[in-house]
Specification:
There is one protein chain. The protein is α/β, with parallel strands linked by helices. It has nine helices and 15 strands. Helix 7 packs across helix 8. 25% of the residues are buried. Bound molecules: flavin-adenine dinucleotide.
Amino acid sequence: MAIVGAGLAGTVLAITLAKAGRKVALIDPHRVHHDEFRAEKTRDEQMGLFDKLGLGQVFRSLSTPMTDLHVFRFGQLFERKQTFEYAFSYAPLVNGMRAALPPEVPLTVGKVAEVSTGPDRQRLVLTDGSVIDARLLVVATGYSEAVRRAIGVERIEESKAHSLSMGFDLAITPQEFGLQSLTFYARRVADRIAFLTIFRIGERLRANMFVYRTVADPWVRAFRENPQKMLLDLMPEIAQRCGNFAVASEVEVRQVSLT
Ligand SMILES: Cc1cc2nc3c(=O)[nH]c(=O)nc-3n(C[C@H](O)[C@H](O)[C@H](O)COP(=O)(O)OP(=O)(O)OC[C@H]3O[C@@H](n4cnc5c(N)ncnc54)[C@H](O)[C@@H]3O)c2cc1C
């Protein structure tokens, strides 16, 4: 079996198929998955799926657990949820999963340039000219378009440029923060903010915010230039919980389309 793409999906599949005794080739252009802003939190249900695959322990070792979640609505503490969530940075998660690949599935570092498919044989040609033949081809190239298009699989966008995910670090320590996780829902619909959530990833205090805007919206530029001031205007209750916090990193912004 040939798996194109060693992100989280391709890597987990490669480990699972190898455990089932399949002969697997896993191909990706990068030996080390680069740092990028992606999913940073997952819930217990998803961890349960990793447990079923025998990978829960690996995932847990690469993430920071939270069990006590404080939720603010309309500026007030609304509820405390006792439930498991896990926080992580995507690249260390993928690289940690890759480290769990068994020796019989080495990562083939290469970029798939051509694909031809047939009823029982699939052929991949990499950019260096090498060829991989397999019975089954799995395309796990995430947001990349080329290989998916080459085999005629269409991405259906249910809602293009649906919302923005924003991520940034806060310059307070987890000890100063004192809590495991805080979620603030927006006070006003007109602000077009779904919610802001603050949580630990290791010793970093991380914030994710989800807003119904596009990257071209001048609001996004204004937020990037002065995130602390805008946050305090939008959700003044943050100051009660996080003191005189500062944003300690660049504000990363990714447009999300529902596909
Ligand atoms: C800001 C943000 C927040 C998100 N939040 C969530 C969330 O809360 N929950 C959730 O479920 N999802 C979330 N997502 C989506 C989630 O991150 C992705 O669905 C997931 O990471 C996709 O994993 P993957 O393994 O399919 O792809 P990727 O991790 O993108 O891996 C694809 C791999 O394919 C390789 N590749 C590409 N082209 C080729 C080629 N030609 N030859 C060989 N290899 C190739 C790439 O190098 C890459 O390593 C979020 C995404 C973003 C951007």
